[in-house]
Write a structure and sequence with these properties.
Blueprint lengths: L3 E3 L6 E8 L11 E7 L4 E6 L4 E5 L5 E5 L8 E6 L5 E5 L4 E6 L4 E5 L2 E2 L2 E2 L2 E7 L2 E6 L4 E5 L5 E5 L9 E7 L2 E6 L5 E5 L5 E4 L8 E6 L5 E5 L4 E5 L5 E5 L12 E7 L2 E6 L4 E6 L1
Antiparallel strand pairs: 1-2, 2-27, 3-4, 4-5, 5-6, 7-8, 8-9, 9-10, 11-12, 13-14, 14-15, 15-16, 17-18, 18-19, 19-20, 21-22, 22-23, 23-24, 25-26, 26-27
Length: 278
């Protein structure tokens, strides 16, 4: 299926490549809440939260395997694969950062603390040999060392910072979408340099961001059920997608992910991931 979405004022279009909504056995997703692309294996992993499992796909969108840690996995919210090949999974009902050693078939759960309080683990990233977790309680991104101790909290110097709602890693830069305001912060994890972008259009409920190779900023609005695109200075360029149940439409979308030139849109309400070719 191909649905072309011409931009409002630019010669840009997206074509719907495929919709992912079930595993190789035909079992449909139930409240999918996260996706992760492993560049090493070229596999896409979907956290099928309602079914307590992870489902993998190849680069063309063909379903491969499902994994539930022999029935032990509980409400996976996010996952990454580290340099050793192990999986790290956020289990929301247990507030656990869970390490899964695939070779040894072992699962070990960890509860994180920082400055005497419990960390509410949410989004999860890998940067070099480090894990970065988004603490939903404070909106800070926490850089972990190998022992899972917090090496440092990552937040902009802005005094009225409201906390991150979504975070992404691009090279040595951590990019964060600020809660409610939709302001964008870029923080270089090596040099400490900061970039601050204020979109020039008010949004309703921004929940996810992505950035393409031209430094255009994509913000997903869960309430308006649209993707808004801004240039690197925050100037509005165009928006696309609308509310609906059919492929190419949204019903309570939750996450964005660029894989090369393809934009993946996770739609919790419709229980699927739409892959758009740019």
């Amino acid at each position: 299926m191909e649905i072309c979405l011409p931009s409002i004022s630019q010669a840009i279009s997206f074509k719907l490549k495929v919709s992912l909504e079930k595993d190789a056995n035909g079992v449909h997703f139930h409240y999918p809440l996260a996706m992760y692309y492993d560049q090493t294996t070229q596999r896409l992993y979907v956290s099928d939260t309602g079914n307590n499992r992870l489902v993998s796909f190849d680069r063309q969108g063909t379903p491969l395997k499902e994994f539930d840690a022999a029935g032990q996995l509980k409400g996976p919210l996010a996952m990454v694969r580290d340099q050793t090949g192990s999986l790290w999974v956020v289990e929301r009902p247990l507030n656990s950062l869970t390490h899964i050693d695939l070779k040894a078939q072992r699962l070990k759960r960890h509860q994180l603390t920082y400055q005497g309080r419990t960390v509410l683990v949410d989004r999860l990233l890998v940067w070099k040999k480090h894990l970065i977790v988004l603490d939903r309680a404070t909106g800070e991104a926490l850089l972990l060392d190998r022992s899972l101790k917090v090496n440092r909290a990552i937040r902009p110097k802005n005094k009225d910072f409201r906390g991150f709602f979504d975070i992404k890693i691009k090279g040595d830069w951590l990019w964060g979408l600020e809660n409610i305001s939709a302001r964008i912060y870029g923080i270089n994890l090596t040099t400490g340099k900061e970039i601050f972008v204020t979109p020039d259009r008010k949004l309703s409920l921004p929940v996810a961001l992505e950035i393409d190779r031209q430094m255009n900023i994509y913000i997903l609005d869960r309430y308006l059920k649209k993707i808004f695109v801004f240039d690197k200075n925050g100037r509005f360029r165009y928006s696309f997608l609308d509310e609906g149940a059919t492929p190419g439409h949204l019903n309570y979308p939750w996450q964005l992910l660029f894989v090369d030139s393809e934009l993946l849109v996770l739609d919790e309400g419709n229980g699927r991931i739409d892959i758009w070719r740019h």
